[in-house]
Amino acid sequence: MEYKIEDIDYFIEGRGPYIIFLHGWGQDKKSFKDISYYLKKKYTCLMLDLPGFGNSKFPEKALSIDDYGDLLNEFILKNKLNVKAIIGHSFGGKVATNYCLRYNGHLKLILCSPSIVKPIHGPIYYGKVGLYKLGKKIPKLKNYLDKKIGSKDYKNSEGVLREILVKSVNTYYDKDLYNIDNDTLLYWGKEDKTTPLYMGRKIERKIPNCKLITIEGNHFAFKDNKYHFINALEEFLDD
User: pTM value?
Assistant: First the structure.
């Protein structure tokens, strides 16, 4: 991996033990700004632009989730950070999970609708997959299918970023979650269609020390219910 941690942009505010915030796909470090505002009196809030997003340098080659986990670990070690917790949303939650599984089972882990277990798909989905595999052999058909049946994130990504997305969506931790030693809080919107609630319930069953909080809302329920989310965070962090 050629990416350097010096190429990662970040914003920092507050004082005390560190809380690291990892944004979701297509977002940036500002994603958690409204949350950090209420935590900065007690914690040092560090919001990263994950490589490929925001002001961080764009990677020349596609990074895997392991690569993101390695970079996060290197960033923490090099800066000698006393990390209290990591908060990750969706894609950022996948990176946070990877880091905790491989490097740190002691800090507190907060995951907002993370895409870390394999989704349940029906016949229509697998029909689309079959059609897409066929289309890959015909360039014009492939371009048409990319526009018609790809996810919103897939359609909005190109080149290396699309390769990173493909690596990410094919990375799951169903068999590994039992090995997470971290105290874990899940925060989930009941109407989330990107990572449906059944995923949250599955994760809660697999992680030994885990609590699931559900609330009305979609994939960005932590933003739409920020005061409720902040209260849940403070209670979890103080416990």
Answer: 0.88
